[in-house]
């Protein structure tokens, strides 16, 4: 790889931590995003345009998927800790290169689990057992990786 151009992140490796507890690597991460909600206002006598006023930011839920592995026990321990009450956590998602070198990290505020789906275990259709974890959050900011 040319040293002038840094190695890009691969789309198959995302490290996830919640409250500094490592949940492992996931091979699919969907939903890192935000939307700024706009309120439209029409001004009397101004027929040429409509004011677009920003109001709030909406953050999409994040879906993390991977084959079932030993790190699944870490996810289950985190989910089991919610039985006495769900409280928001901090978390991070790190995109990595094929050599597991961090490329970009997103710090998440107010992380709560929304949904977990385990594998479908069926003798008639043998395939890789997958798990999906969906989380909600109240915002994120990119962190520069050295």
Automatic annotation (TrEMBL):
GO terms for MF: structural molecule activity
A Pfam family recorded for this sequence: Phage_T4_gp19
InterPro entries found in the cross-reference section: CHP02241, Phage_T4_Gp19
Protein name: Phage tail-like protein
Organism: Kribbella voronezhensis
Organismal lineage: Bacteria, Bacillati, Actinomycetota, Actinomycetes, Propionibacteriales
């Amino acid at each position: 790889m040319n040293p002038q151009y840094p190695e890009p992140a691969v789309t198959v490796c995302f490290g996830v931590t919640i409250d500094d507890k490592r949940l492992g690597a996931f091979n699919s991460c969907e939903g890192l995003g935000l939307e700024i909600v706009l309120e439209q206002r029409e001004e009397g006598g101004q027929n040429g345009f409509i004011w677009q006023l920003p109001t709030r930011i909406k953050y999409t839920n994040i879906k993390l998927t991977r084959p079932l592995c030993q790190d699944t026990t870490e996810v289950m321990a985190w989910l089991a800790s919610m039985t006495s009450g769900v409280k928001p956590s901090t978390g991070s998602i790190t995109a990595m290169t094929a050599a597991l070198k961090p490329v970009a990290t997103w710090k998440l505020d107010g992380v709560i689990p929304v949904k977990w789906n385990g594998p479908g275990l069926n003798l008639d259709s043998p395939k890789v057992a997958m798990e999906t974890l969906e989380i909600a959050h109240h915002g994120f900011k990119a962190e520069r990786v050295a």
